[in-house]
């Protein structure tokens, strides 16, 4: 995501307009350290969703699950309602719909009246979809949650707790999902940009001093 937003002003603008941007990957934490600031911890999408649902359980939080393959959003919704008694999943919709169906999907979500919309379409589709339709959806908080539904539905397993604590969840995912190697390959370039940015800032400070 960092590589994409650094190269595409349109995506960068969408991300920068978000109310909350969380550091999902260990590479983001490392890039932050190179640039001279420390993010407290990783916040994987699934952990954020669980925390939101836990906080909303006593408030009868209404949730809509949008995205993933057919049947996955519904299964994820069932897992969330079983795990967090008190929330209500007011609707689900897979992510396999066309732009021509956007209006119908948006209307269905608005009619369902969720307070939180979980969008699991992957980057950058989910971010673009949220940015395009946010104002049409009514009074709702939209969260882009990537592959969270696949984990909740049991289709993908998370790394063991010790690997997550050690910041090695990315290694586990690479081993289980080889296609992710293409994504991981951009990380050295992102870190190199961070190094150059830090060096550039240091030179500027010296010149100004």
Structure explained in plain terms:
It is a single chain. The protein is an alpha/beta fold. The chain has a domain of 111 residues: Rossmann fold (3-Layer(aba) Sandwich). Helix content is 54%, strand content 10%. The chain contains 12 helices and 4 strands. The chain has a 4-stranded parallel β-sheet, with helices on both faces. Helix 3 runs parallel beside helix 12. The two termini are 35 Å apart.
Provide key terms for this protein.
209 residues; alpha/beta; Rossmann fold; 4-stranded parallel sheet; 12 helices; 10% strand
Brief summary of the model shown:
The protein has 209 residues and is α/β, with parallel strands linked by helices.
- What's the total number of strands? 4
CATH superfamily membership of the domain at 43-153: Response regulator
| Series of secondary-structure elements, N-terminal to C-terminal | HHHHEHEHEHEHHHHH
User: Low-confidence stretches at least 5 residues in length (pLDDT < 50)?
Assistant: none
Shape: globular
- Assess the beta-strand content as a share of residues: 5-15%
N-to-C span? 35 Å
> Percentage of helical residues?
40-55%
User: Structural class, judged by helices and strands?
Assistant: alpha/beta
Q: How much is the average pLDDT?
A: 88
User: What is the CATH architecture assignment of the domain at 43-153?
Assistant: 3-Layer(aba) Sandwich
The biggest beta sheet reads: 4 strands, parallel
Radius of gyration: 19 Å
* Spatial order of strands in the largest sheet: 2-1-3-4
CATH topology of the domain at 43-153: Rossmann fold
* CATH class designation of the domain at 43-153: Alpha Beta
Count helical runs. Answer: 12
